[in-house]
Amino acid sequence: MTTLKGVFLCVHEKHKVSYNNIYSWVQRYKEHGPAKLIDGRGKPDMIQIVSR
Question: What is the pTM of this model?
Answer without folding.
Answer: 0.61
